[in-house]
Amino acid sequence: MAKVQLTPEEIAAKKIRRSNGWTRFWAIVVALVLVVGASGFVASKAKTARTEAEEALKEQQEAIQQAAANNTVIGGVSGGGSATGGNGTTAEVSDEAQQAADAINAATAAAANATYDWERHCVVADIDVGSATDTLNGIIQRVDPNANLNSVVGGFMGQGDKSNTYTPGADAAAVFSNDQYALKATSLQAADLQNLTVEGTKYTFTLPVAENPQKDGNTALSRLTNDFITLDEVSAGVSEALGALSFLLSVDGADVAFQDIEVTVELNESGQLTSLSYSYYMDVRSLELSVATGTGNGTVQATYSNFVY
Known about the structure:
- The protein is globular and about 55 Å long.
- By secondary structure, the protein is α+β, with helices and mostly antiparallel strands.
- The strands form two sheets. Strands 3, 4, 5, 6, 7, 8, 9 and 10 form an eight-stranded antiparallel β-sheet that branches. It has a two-stranded antiparallel sheet with strand order 1-2.
- It contains eight helices and ten strands.
- The protein starts with 7 loop residues before the first helix and ends with a strand.
- It has one domain.
- It has helices at 8-36, 44-69, 95-111, 133-143, 149-156, 172-176, 220-224, 231-242, and strands at 82-84, 90-92, 115-128, 160-166, 194-199, 202-207, 210-211, 251-267, 273-289, 293-308.
């Protein structure tokens, strides 16, 4: 019998199914161990992290209030009125920032329907669920010596190096393995563009810290991209992965900050997008599971380039 030749799309779908099956297997392993060992968990590290985060946020709020009192420009942009920043703070904005935001929004709206290349690199680290961390790693490594809790949890968060080419009309979920990674038509506001540097048609800026953002456009991060995970998505992912065993483990709450968000956007002379890249640090201060509280962090870097209109 002749060997059936799979199309590139079928090969990609097969890889996704295999990856999803492996992730589901690990989710069951982790859930079972967490439930069995729940009585031995401690959450002191998570509490310490939360306390430190609260203190840092308090200091940030005091700094913002002091800056406002001194009529200091937030984010390195001056003149031209004020607007609401990514986390509800009031920031001065300039005509240059407004022009940059308008140009980027127009360019990404057109580019989202073009052909483009995509790369994403994600690293998840320091996953800690108290006294069960070592036990979990030991059990996981009996199955796969090269795996650990970081790589298992990372499977839910898109860990690894990914790349593909998107063409208009393609199934985004198949191209990106998760359609949240597709280029978004941005809706950036002038106040979002902190520390803005303009070199011709190249824009470099940072975004404000996003505390537990939703994909509703109410933070600067969500006005740039959907490439971040929310509590509802974590909860749904765990439930889906466990299937009939989902009663073993639930996600009850989370405290996550997306920070150090750096963005570079390049347009051509016609105002078309030629490249967009961003990176950020994800600080999981607390992930409250039904049987434990965990902490961790991760980094993400993504680039969209080689646009064909």
